[in-house]
């Protein structure tokens, strides 16, 4: 009690009240700093703006404040041809920190070449950032990062759900683009994980409700985005991911292990579509010999035993695979990046106790951003930066974002889509990403505007040094190829 009394007395003497020391949410704020970096061997000067911009209700009153970080190259005066990339992560409930401090921005985490954290925590220059070819804004949705609800009377359902999230963020993006005078600029949306659901819906909402048209959408480790799949399709589609993981951990027979992954995976994909899926559809109609033959091949490609495959009726859940593949070694493999290994309290069971990939990542990102925000961006606040914020319950009803993205592409001849997948990502696996693209364009009429890129890493493929370079270069090429000259009309010939 004495400490409380003395501190209160001191504050009163200084003219400070308790109310003045509460954590304060700035509805509108902005701090600008100037920097220089080297990208692909060339100097790139830029301005960083860290700040907050409000979300308004229909009466024009602020109901939330969103934190953003905006990077602009400063040696380019004409913004009409300068691309603008608007970047989101996922969750839902995840801040934009992941791609901001590890992928496309001018600085990246201090980690080793395979993505494992090292100390001291912090950041270093990103020699592969796309800032040389595009300006970038990283946006933290409500309750993530430093973003917060400022009107306690506003229902949480205004923000927390597939469609509410898209609606308020589209309004926010509209305001940001207007304030920054970027309506003439070629524009791109990039999202990771659930952020792909978000940007797939955003491009449609911005196009149809705000008349803002985009040149491209980049889907990093995409979710299913509401693309229908289930039963045999859902379960069969996991096998190529299982095969890639087993190959990485050298759990396959020598005839497969000796092949390069790029040569081996097409064989597995063909088996999945042509043999495994039809067999799963038949179910109990399969003869004993047919079932045995399919199980034998499944085991051969997955690194699991034929007995285990038969016990599961050919349908191996992902959680069981992560526990089973290296069970004999007493190890589990990661969900978001199956290169990572962990171990559980007990070797028994049908699922791992935790994801060793995610736990490795978390303790590198949080310290790095807190240091970077204060020391480099010079943004000072007592708010906690929420890597994962409270956004539940999340309304997942009426999910059509993948189909909405496809419709937006048909409406806008300029719009291109690129998917980036990690071959060792078990949360949003690469073969299901391909499947989504096939279903978005079932007639194949937009194939010249749709592309898929794979990397030998996991959910955040950019954490691996080799893939940080190639994945950024793929974005750079995607942007350059989807730019149009002033004489090219938006029409189908």
Distance between the termini: 79 Å
Average predicted local confidence, pLDDT: 93
Considering DSSP H and I runs of 4 or more, what fraction of the residues is helical? Answer: 25-40%
Query: What is the helix/strand order?
Result: HEEEEHEEEEHEHEHHHHHHHEEHHEHEH
Structure in a nutshell:
The chain has 493 residues and is of the alpha/beta class.
Walkthrough of the structure:
By secondary structure, the protein is α/β, with parallel strands linked by helices. The chain folds into 2 domains: 29-227 and 363-482, Alpha/Beta hydrolase fold, catalytic domain (Rossmann fold, 3-Layer(aba) Sandwich); 232-355, no CATH class. Helix content is 37%, strand content 17%. It has 15 helices and 14 strands. The strands form 3 sheets. Strands 1, 2, 3, 4, 7, 8, 9, 10, 13 and 14 form a 10-stranded mixed beta sheet that branches. It has a two-stranded antiparallel sheet with strand order 5-6. Strands 11-12 form a two-stranded antiparallel ribbon. Helix 4 (194-209) links the parallel strand 9 and strand 10 (216-220). Helix 3 packs across helix 4 and helix 4 (194-209) crosses helix 13. The longest helix is centred in the middle third of the chain and has 22 residues, at 261-282. The protein is globular, with a radius of gyration of 24 Å. Mean pLDDT is 93; it is low at 1-21. GO terms for molecular function: serine-type carboxypeptidase activity. This is Serine carboxypeptidase.
